[in-house]
Write a structure and sequence with these properties.
2 domains, 245 residues, alpha+beta, 15% strand, CSD domain-containing protein, transmembrane, OB fold (Dihydrolipoamide Acetyltransferase, E2P), phosphoprotein, elongated
Length: 245
C-alpha cells in the first residue's frame, strides 16, 4: 500500500462508475471505482487525493478518494446527485411532462393518458427493482422481453428512471438499443391514435389533435431515436472489436 497522494482524473465513465487517476508524481494510472469516493462524483481533469493500493491481481486501485477544487456543479448535475438521473433522462422526462400537460390542455389527448403513463411507469419501476434484487441474490431473473413489453405498453418513463436510479440495465448497449426503439414505437403509436381522433373530429378539434401530437411525440421521439442509434453504433463497435485479431 502506498501513502496518500494527489492526482487528476485521467478518464471517467460515469455510466459505469469507474475511471483512472493520473498520479501527480507520475507513474501508472490508478483504477478508481465510484464506491471509493468519499463524497460526490468526479469530473474529467478534476484534482483528487487518494490512497493507492495493490489488488490481488497486481493492479493499482484507489481508495479513500477525496475530491479537490470542488465547485458548485451545474443545475443538471445537482439534479443528478439528488435523483440519480443523467442529463438525457432529465431532458426526456421533462419533455414528456411538459408535452403531456400541453397536449391535454389543448384538448388533443384525454386526461387519463397521464394516469396510464404514471401507473405503468410505477409498475415498470417495481419490476426493474425486482429484477435487480433477483440479480443480486442469484435467483430467477425477469426476462428482458418482459421489461421491453412493459416499456412498449407505456411504462418507458418508469423504465428510464429505474435504469438510472437503480443502475440496472443502464450500460448494456444491446438492451438500450431495443429500449429506445420501444420509446420511438410508443410515440408513433400515439401518432396513429391521434390521427384516428383527427379523422373523427373536425375543424378546431383536428387542429388541436395535430398540435397535441406534435407536442408530445416530436421531441421525445427525436431524442429516443438519436440515443437508440448511438446505442446500436456502440454495440456494433463492441462486436467488431471482439472479432478483430
Amino acid at each position: 500500500m502506498k501513502g496518500r497522494q494527489e492526482g487528476t482524473i485521467k478518464s471517467w465513465n460515469d455510466a459505469r462508475g469507474f475511471g483512472f487517476i493520473a498520479p501527480a508524481e507520475g507513474g501508472r494510472a490508478v483504477f478508481a471505482h465510484i464506491s471509493a469516493f468519499e463524497s460526490g462524483r468526479p469530473r474529467m481533469a478534476q484534482r483528487v487525493r487518494f490512497v493507492a493500493e495493490t489488488s490481488a491481481d497486481g493492479r493499482l486501485r484507489a481508495s479513500k478518494v477525496q475530491l479537490l477544487d470542488v465547485a458548485l456543479p451545474p443545475a443538471s448535475e445537482r439534479i443528478r446527485a439528488a435523483t440519480g438521473l443523467d442529463r438525457t433522462s432529465q431532458l426526456v422526462l421533462a419533455l414528456l411532462v411538459a408535452c403531456l400537460a400541453a397536449a391535454i390542455g389543448l384538448g388533443g389527448l384525454p386526461w387519463w393518458i397521464a394516469l396510464v403513463y404514471g401507473g405503468l411507469s410505477g409498475l415498470t419501476f417495481l419490476v426493474y427493482a425486482a429484477d435487480k434484487s433477483s440479480a443480486r441474490a442469484g435467483a430467477r431473473r425477469i426476462s428482458e422481453s418482459t421489461l421491453h413489453l412493459l416499456a412498449l405498453a407505456g411504462g418507458w418513463p418508469g423504465a428510464l428512471v429505474a435504469q438510472q436510479v437503480l443502475r440496472h440495465k443502464s450500460s448494456k448497449t444491446s438492451f438500450l438499443a431495443v429500449y429506445w426503439a420501444t420509446v420511438a414505437l410508443t410515440a408513433r403509436a400515439v401518432r396513429c391514435w391521434c390521427c384516428r381522433r383527427e379523422g373523427r373530429g373536425s375543424g378546431r378539434g383536428r387542429r388541436r389533435c395535430r398540435d397535441a401530437f406534435t407536442a408530445i411525440t416530436g421531441p421525445v421521439r427525436g431524442v429516443s431515436e438519436r440515443v437508440g442509434a448511438e446505442s446500436i453504433r456502440m454495440q456494433w463497435k463492441i462486436c467488431f472489436d471482439r472479432a478483430s485479431p
